Amino acid sequence: MSRFSYILTLLAVLIFSGAYAQEELQMLGKEGEKEILLRWAPPSPASWELLNKYGYSLVRYTVSRDGKILSTPEEFIINNNLHPDSVALGKNIDTDDEAAVAAQAIYGDGFQLSENFSNDIMQVVNKATELEQRYSFALFVADQSFNVAKMSGLAYTDNQIKANEKYLYRIQSNVPDSIMQIGYGKVYLTSREVPPLPKPTGIKETSNGSSVMIRWDKALFDKVYNSYYIERSENGGAFGQIFDLPYLNTESSAGQSEYFYFSDSINVDNKYAYRLRGKTPFSELGPYSDTVIVEANISFDYPVNITSHSISKAGAVDLNWVFPDSLEVFIEQFQVERATAASGDYTIIKKDLSVNRRSYTDTTPLSTAYYRVAYLSNNKLKHSFPYLVQLQDSIPPAPPKNLTAVIDTIGNVTLKWDENTEADLLGYKVYRSNFKNSEFGEVTTATIGHNTFIDSIRLDNLSKKIYYKVEALDNRFNRSEYSDWVEVTKPDILPPTKPVFTDYKVKGDSVYLTWQRSWSKDVKQYVLYRKEGNINNWLQLNSVDSKASNYVDVLKSTNQEYEYTLVAVDSSNNESEPAAIIRIASESKSYPPVSNLKYKIDNVSKTITLTWKYEPNDDIEGFRIYRKVGDGKMGLLTTVGGQNKEFTEDLIQQGLTYGIMTLYSNGAHSEILILKAN
Q1: How far apart, in whole angstroms, are the C-alpha atoms of residue 584 and residue 505?
Q2: Which helix (H) or strand (E) holds 119?
Q3: Nearest-10 Cα torsion for 132, 134, 135, 136
Q4: What's the confidence (pLDDT) of residue 307?
Q5: How far is the C-alpha of 439 from the C-alpha of 482, rounded, in Å?
Q6: CA 510 to CA 522: how far, in whole Å?
Q7: SS3 call for 122
Q8: DSSP one-letter code for 330
Q9: CB contact at 8 A, 104 and 91
C-alpha cells in the first residue's frame, strides 16, 4: 500500500470510528381505532447510510388477546425488506418540498476521491460532514411529514390489527453484524383508546409598537409536538399561516427554556390576532391555542429606566429612575408596578405620580420583587425594564406536600403535588431513587415552574419499585426540605424464571414429580400439564401454590408413555417458559381374565350359552364377547355389563370358537380367554 493510500485510509477510519460502536434504533408508535402508525430512526449518520442500503425488518408480536397474556407471543413478520422508495420520492419531488429534500439527502450526487493528495484529505473530512448533513436533513423532513417518512423507509402504517389484541413492534437492522452491529428498537402499544391531542397553553404577547413577541408553554408539549403552525389575522380578517412551513424548536437540548418564542414585525395603527396549533411526528395537527390580540398604535416612545435603589433601616425600598425633564410635556403621569417574577403579572402599587417625580418608596416590600416604572402617553403605557430588589432572605420555602405518582404500562410516571404559596417561589426540583433509604438523584434538568412532572423509566429490569421526592426553591435559591417520598410499583412485564424438574418416580398407577422452584420471588402458582401417548394436545392437570415443589399424578390407564411439563405464573399472570419436558412409561399392572369359562348347547331351543366366573371387583366395567366361525377371524360379537356371568345366543352352526375380555373402569382390559365349542 502506498503512503498516500495508507494515510487516506487511516484518516477515514479516525473520522468514522466513533459511529461504529453498538447503537440502537429508536421507535415510536401511535394508536388509532383501525390502524397503528409506527416511526423509527437510525442512531447515527453511518448507520443511516448502511440501513438505506441493507434495509430494515419490521416484526409484530401479539402479546395478549381478549385481556389475557399469551403464553408465547405470536410473531408476524410485517416486512423484512423495508428500504427508501426511490420511485415514490421521485414522483413527489416537484410537488412536495419534504420529499425533494429526502430524495436529495438519500440519492443526491456525492464525490469520488481523486489522485490529488492534499485535496483528498479535505474530501475525506468533507465527506464525513456531508454524511452528517444528509442524515440530519433526512430525519428532519421525516419528522415533518409522515408520508415522506414512509417513502424514506422510516415509517409504516399497520392496518391489519384487531381491537381485542395488544402488540409489541420491533424494528431490526438488516445490516450484517460483521459490518456494523445495530440494536433493534421496540414499542409496546397497550390501548386502542385515542386520546385527543392537547391544546397549546400559556400563549402571551409582548409588543413594542413595531414588533411583537409571542410565547407559549414548551416543556408540557415537548413529547407531543415537534413543530407548530402559527397563524395571524389582521384587522379582523381571516386567519392565515404566517409561513408555509411549520415553526421549529431550534434550541439545543441542554438548558432548554420553559417557553417557545416567536417574533413578528407588525404595522402601526393595525390590530392583529395570533393563534397556533401543534404538529406531531405522525403529521397530526392538534387543536388551536387561545387567541391573543395585539394593537400597534403610534405613541410617544422614550425609554424610562430604574437606575438605583436603597433599603432603609425600617426595611422600606427607595426606587430611583431617570427621565428627561424636557420630555415631561409628552407624558401624563408615572406609576410604579411590582411582581414576583420578571415576566409575571405586575400589580400597580402606586399610580398618578406627577410627571416631575423621579423616586418612590415602597414601605411594604416583598422579600424578592421585580419593579417597573411606567408613564402614560396618548392613553398608552410605556414600561421600564424589570428591576430586581432582594431583601435579606435565608428562610427556605416549605416542603412540597401531598406528592402523588401514577405510572402507566410503558413506564411514564406522572407526578403531582400541592403548589407552594410563597410569593418568592422560584420552582421545584424532582429526585428519584431505586431504594427509599438510599441517595436520591435529580431527574429534572432545570428548575420547573409548575407542580407536575412526567418521568420516563425502564420496566425491563429487576427492580420492582421506585421512589420520588420533590424540593422547592425560592428566588434566593434557598432550598426546602424534601417532600415525603412516594413509592411507585412498576407494572410487571417480565415473566418469572422457569422451574426445572429434578426427579420423578413411577409406582403402580401413580407418578411422583419433583421440581426446583422458579427463582422469581413473585411466583403465585405452578401449572402442570400432561400429554398422553401420541396425542398432540396438552392437558392441564392442576395448579399448585408457589411453595409446592412436588405433585402426584394418578393415571387412569397404564402401559402408556406420558410427557409432563409445568410453568410458573407470577402475581401479574406472566407465565414462564415451560420446564424441560420429561417422558415416562407407566408400570404394567395385571388385569386377570375371567375363570371357569364353559358352554352348554340346548338342542331343543337351538341355542348356546356361555358361563364364566370372576372375583367381585368394583373396577370391572363389562365384558367383550368375541366369536370365530371355523377357520375365520375372531370378531367382536357384543359387550355386556360387569354384573353378567353368562351369555346366550342362537346356535348358528357347529365349529364355533368364543373369546371373552374383561374391561376395567380405568380403561385397562385383560387378555382374551378362548373357548372352543365342539
Answers
A1: 9
A2: helix 117-144
A3: 80
A4: 95
A5: 12
A6: 31
A7: helix
A8: G
A9: no
Residues of the chain above pLDDT 90, percent: 42
Q: Specify which residues 611 forms β-bridges with.
A: 598, 646
SS3 438: coil
Q: Measured between alpha carbons, how far is 15 from 18 in angstroms, rounded to an integer?
A: 7
* Neighbouring-strand partners of residue 664: 620
- Using a cut of 0.85, tell me whether the model's pTM lies above it: no
Work out the angle between the directed axes of helices 3-16 and 117-144 (0-180°, nearest 10). 30
Q: Which of left, alpha, beta for 157 (phi over 0: left; psi -120 to 50: alpha)?
A: beta
**Grid cell listed for 602:** 340346548
Residue 3 pLDDT class (50, 70, 90 cuts): very low
Give the other-Cβ count within 10 Å of 484's Cβ: 13
* Residue found by looking up cell 387378555 in the block: 671
23-24 and 182-183 strand pairing: parallel
SS3 content of the chain, % helix, strand, coil (to 5): 15, 45, 45
**Cell 411422583, residue?**
512
3 state DSSP class of 269: coil
Ranges of beta strands (E only) in 247-328 are: 247-248, 259-265, 270-279, 292-296, 305-311, 317-322
Mean pLDDT of all residues in 368-374: 93
Coil, strand, or helix at residue 610? strand
d(CA 571, CA 422): 45
Closest alpha carbon to 21 in 181, 221, 233, 256: 181
Looking at residue 184, what is its pLDDT? 94
Contact 365, 391 (CB under 8 A): yes
CA distance 573 to 565: 18
Helix (H) or strand (E) holding 375: strand 368-377
Q: In the predicted model, is pLDDT for residue 507 greater than 60?
A: yes
> What is the total residue count of the chain?
678
End-to-end CA distance of the chain: 105
Order of strands, edge to edge, in the sheet holding 204-207? 204-207, 211-217, 259-265
Q: Whole-angstrom Cα distance, residue 148 to residue 402?
A: 46
- Average pLDDT (2-12) is 36
Compute the distance between CA of residue 621 and CA of residue 615 in angstroms, rounded to an integer.
13
Residues 6+ apart with CB under 8 A from 225: 200, 278, 279, 280, 286
Where is 486: in which H helix or E strand?
Answer: strand 486-489
Q: Which residues contact 306 (CB under 8 A, 6 or more apart)?
A: 319, 320, 321, 371, 372, 373, 384, 385, 387
Neighbour tally for 228: CB within 10 Å: 22
Task: Give the pLDDT confidence score for residue 667 in this predicted structure.
Answer: 62
Nearest one of 171, 277, 166, 278 to 222, comparing CA atoms: 278
Quick one: which of 640, 645, 647, 649 has its CA closest to 605? 649
DSSP 8-state class, residue 462: S
Backbone angles phi, psi at 243, to 5 degrees: -125, 150
